[in-house]
Amino acid sequence: MKIIVGKNKDDIFQKTINLIENVAKESIAKDNIFKIGLSGGSVATFLTIGIPKIKTDFTKWKLFFCDERNVPEDSNDSTYGFYKSALIGTSKLTEDHFIRIKQGVSAKEAAADYTEQLKRYFPGETVPKFHLLLLGMGPDGHTCSLFPNHPLLEETDEWIAAITDSPKPPSERITMTFKVVNNSKNCVFVVCGKEKAGIVKRILHNKEDLPASRVNPTSGEVYWMLDEEAAGDLQKINED
Ligand SMILES: O=C(O)[C@H](O)[C@@H](O)[C@H](O)[C@H](O)COP(=O)(O)O
């Protein structure tokens, strides 16, 4: 685990962009493709600003979703819709770069379909191994759409699961399970703001068993990219 604290949001965002750029370069050199998983929420806002600044061959990128809301792409709640409106037409990314969820079906069907899509992009792999997953963390310690005390935390067979009772609206989503998350080469949390300081301490110092605590790739690295505010309670401990 690597905990990297930025002086402020812009500093940690730049450090995260540098990390993504380096992993993309290594991945393309080795595999001739860079397979990245995106999350929604504030990390999406940061990425839509940061991704276009990355010096890379975007023709080798494929962008997946660590989780996605089961809503129409033109809904304000669609994570893909947010990335599309910010990046397509304004960057070198096109719709074809994104692996989107099936529209107009139940969450269960969308999860099954996304699993089939993953099989096409990770041929022959017993579990998809992403080069990098970009993760947010909610104030309750959830990540992807894996929420505290939810049965999906214990899912060990499915790669992509459906949730219809998400405590964070909208209620219907699909999500990577820990089976896929913890098979990734790199998991990168981007967590900013003083409202996250308490949960960051609960996870990184108190070691409470919360969903984000369970992100620990079996043969990969987990990075916690924190601004000073989100790391504030951790730093108080170090000063004591
Ligand atoms: O689609 C989603 O809702 C996200 O994937 C979710 O996991 C998000 O990353 C966290 O809720 C953190 O969101 P914030 O950074 O906005 O608090």
TrEMBL record:
<comment type="pathway">
    <text>Carbohydrate degradation; pentose phosphate pathway; D-ribulose 5-phosphate from D-glucose 6-phosphate (oxidative stage): step 2/3.</text>
</comment>
<dbReference type="InterPro" id="IPR005900">
    <property type="entry name" value="6-phosphogluconolactonase_DevB"/>
</dbReference>
<keyword id="KW-0378">Hydrolase</keyword>
<dbReference type="InterPro" id="IPR039104">
    <property type="entry name" value="6PGL"/>
</dbReference>
<dbReference type="GO" id="GO:0005975">
    <property type="term" value="P:carbohydrate metabolic process"/>
</dbReference>
<comment type="function">
    <text>Hydrolysis of 6-phosphogluconolactone to 6-phosphogluconate.</text>
</comment>
<dbReference type="InterPro" id="IPR037171">
    <property type="entry name" value="NagB/RpiA_transferase-like"/>
</dbReference>
<dbReference type="GO" id="GO:0006098">
    <property type="term" value="P:pentose-phosphate shunt"/>
</dbReference>
<feature type="domain" description="Glucosamine/galactosamine-6-phosphate isomerase">
    <location>
        <begin position="8"/>
        <end position="224"/>
    </location>
</feature>
<comment type="similarity">
    <text>Belongs to the glucosamine/galactosamine-6-phosphate isomerase family. 6-phosphogluconolactonase subfamily.</text>
</comment>
<dbReference type="GO" id="GO:0017057">
    <property type="term" value="F:6-phosphogluconolactonase activity"/>
</dbReference>
<protein>
    <recommendedName>
        <fullName>6-phosphogluconolactonase</fullName>
        <ecNumber>3.1.1.31</ecNumber>
    </recommendedName>
</protein>
<dbReference type="InterPro" id="IPR006148">
    <property type="entry name" value="Glc/Gal-6P_isomerase"/>
</dbReference>
<dbReference type="Pfam" id="PF01182">
    <property type="entry name" value="Glucosamine_iso"/>
</dbReference>
